Amino acid sequence: GNSVTQMEGPVTLSEEAFLTINCTYTATGYPSLFWYVQYPGEGLQLLLKATKADDKGSNKGFEATYRKETTSFHLEKGSVQVSDSAVYFCALSGTGGSYIPTFGRGTSLIVHP
Amino acid sequence: DAGVTQSPTHLIKTRGQQVTLRCSPKSGHDTVSWYQQALGQGPQFIFQYYEEEERQRGNFPDRFSGHQFPNYSSELNVNALLLGDSALYLCASSPRQGREETQYFGPGTRLLVL
């Protein structure tokens, strides 16, 4: 079956540091890949997505590239802010005719001033 | 444009009781999915509704049931509550009868079972 593996958190950074959160996946076929973000006390929001190999999703300074050869979709940001503190979820969907996403366990990011 | 709304925001129940959670989808969306998010975990898919029928179901027991109304809003019912049912329950909506990959999530209902 499909699965998503994320690096364990929390990831603790100082403001303006570079961020990488690793995500790898196992899936049959060619899934679409997503990053969702969950701020404290809120539901999940779509951050970015990529639908085919070598696509780069980007939003709010965050980027992730769909790497089919390494089955990865790592999230990066060049300079994090305190307001980026949240839990980040990697997800995939679109295999076997189903659009129901499979989520990773989430990675907590804490950014200090 | 109102997003996905859920009620109540918090709920405390005791083991064996029954609970009903409610969700109104984003305007223009016809599909509602429910997820359970345990503490420190990613959301787990419970089931999906469109055209007032359950279309897909995840690995959850029959104690979990749902309903969708003609206005596309939805309810999640859980019977015979267990301590392990304590979680954040998320509703997500999408258009096109489940053929849209992006999910739009509500803020969730936090259920505590004592």
Structure overview:
The complex is a heterodimer of chains A (about 110) and B (about 110). Chain A is built from no helices and twelve strands. Chain A is mainly β and about 110 residues long. In chain A, the strands form three sheets. In chain A, strands 2, 5, 6, 10, 11 and 12 form a six-stranded mixed β-sheet that branches. Chain B has about 110 residues and is an all-beta fold. Chain B is built from no helices and eleven strands. Chain B has strands at about 5, 10-15, 20-25, 30-35, 45-50, 55, 65-70, 75-80, 85-95, 105, 110-114. The interface of A and B includes residues 49, 99 and 100 of A.
Ends distance of chain A: 41 Å
| SSE pattern of chain B, N- to C-terminal | EEEEEEEEEEE
Number of strands of chain A: 12
Shape of chain B from CA axes? globular
DSSP summary: helix tally of chain B: 0
Specify the oligomeric state.
heterodimer
Radius of gyration of chain B: 13 Å
Residues in β-strands, percent of chain B = over 45%
Largest sheet of chain A: 6 strands, mixed
- Structural class label of chain A: mainly beta
Return the average pLDDT of chain B rounded to an integer: 94
Q: Identify the biggest protein-protein contact and residues per side.
A: A-B, 25 and 25 residues
Major β-sheet annotation of chain B: 7 strands, mixed
